[in-house]
Amino acid sequence: MQKRWVLKARGNPDKVAALSAELGIGPVLAELLVQRGVSTFEEAKDFFRPSLSQLHDPFLMKDMDKAVERIVKALENKEKILVYGDYDVDGTTAVSLVYTFLKELGHEALDFYIPDRYSEGYGISFKGVDFAHDNNFRLVIALDCGIKAIEKIRKANEYQVDFIICDHHRPDDHLPDAVAVLDAKRPDCDYPYKELSGCGVGFKLIQALAQRRNIAFESLYKYLDLVVVSIASDIVPITGENRILAYYGLKLINSNPRPGFEAILKFSNINRKPGAEVRLVEELVNNGNNGDDTDCIFTRELTISDLVFLLGPRINAAGRIESGRNSVELLICNNAETAEIIGQQINDLNTTRRDLDSTTTDMALDAIKNDQKLLKAKSTVVYHPEWHKGVIGIVASRLIEVYYRPTIVLTHSNGLVTGSARSIKDFDIYDAIDECSDLLEHFGGHKYAAGLSLKPEKLDEFIEKFEQVVSRGITEDMLSPEVEIDLRINLNEIGPKFFKVLKQFAPFGPGNMSPVFQTDSVIDNGYGRIVGKNHLKLTIGHPEISSSPFPAIAFQQGDYYPYICQGKPFSICYHIEENEWNNQKSIQLNIKDIKIPEAGEA
User: Fold this and answer.
1) Are 379 and 467 in contact (CB under 8 A)?
2) With 80 as the cut, is the pLDDT of residue 271 above it?
3) What CATH number does the domain containing 249 carry?
């Protein structure tokens, strides 16, 4: 699939030059900082050394005072409290966080509830409300869900079961009539940061409770591993408060992961050393002293990407295949042996999930390939009544890798057609689905991911209307995948000192992506080869500029080998990363895309 290379606009040259001088770093690194909104010494200090003291006062969130007052009342009166959350990573980490905090306060009249994906669906369900009533729970704390549960909360109020909603999804015009609705995205909420994960909202709740009960903030640090996994897995921006929470959460998960995470990590292929000392570039903001080029310590740590691809899918697998309750049991477990048993079970479920994912993706691709109307469409909507509900969101993402356009994958569940939607850069799929809401029973989500359900007899009409909405709002450029490039650089600008500082831009994720660089007129040293399934292993040099060659990997780009092996020049865009082989660490280029000159170009 041909990709568009889009070079970011350059920062203000005066700001770049001033920052470069003030920090004692090169212009490339200063340019990257200015692109990220960092243009002063103090802003650089906050960026490279986030502080938990920079977190906002939780009581700035609308209804936080009401939520805390109701929970304190429940604690004092020993009321039964039910902690309720969605079955995905964000929901199960949020439930684990709030449940554990209340448990450690000594509250025994406590349980948690994860709805069944198949019999109840997403969010607060009538079955869940009935469970709370039948089991005499007087208060339910709903996490990562509930912002649209108007009818369910009305039913709960009839039962005299109080709800506190902690959500981060976009609300409708009307909010549920709950005791408190915590959601920074509600229009009347002045909370300064709007992009918390569901677990992040849960953290703000326990932060507020800790303040009210004079509990030291330091006692909350142990929950940040849960928060960072939710931030990574829910693909929320790693900016503002999320960057602070992710920064310290990664430190914790690398130094002292809870038994549940440790159990899951045993099934990963990362060679990690818990408790290993991590050397930071403390001198970066120390009067411009950037350290000696030879004083570089490269330590392999878990990154946001590792949480997304190693931890997240396994935690999700429980809710996709069986019950998300298993994930909460794993995350609240304090016993290593028990955690390992649950971790093995969850890893087995993840293996089943991968098989279902692969089979369903193949079926969906065949359906598209054999449907001329669908091939010509601006959107992808595919349906099969027997597809497994637990993998359709993953399948939607897989389809976008082949057919780059807004995508919905649908199956049949409990008498309804239900599905997951995924989008492409700059297209708001939530808004597109909202325009079709007259045909839907339920929908919710974000700009790039959503869920929906509708009656079977409305399916054809929905597909037609959704295609009309997408066609009206999408451009041809948007239908071509884009590689956003931070800067053009030469290979001689990359070195140990440069990379040492570049690593400190982490944690990387939406809003602070790992920088992508472009270098033109490079060649392979003649020993390039195809490895694995069509991957290129190269050694990249820059013959026009004196520079040392770099090892490089280009996944799924073996088709360029016949050209590259001739020693001809080409352009690359790439990340700069660290590679470890036989206990030796080196800088490696991870090539995202390759461009060869058009016929007639020099």
Assistant:
1) yes
2) no
3) 3.90.1640.30
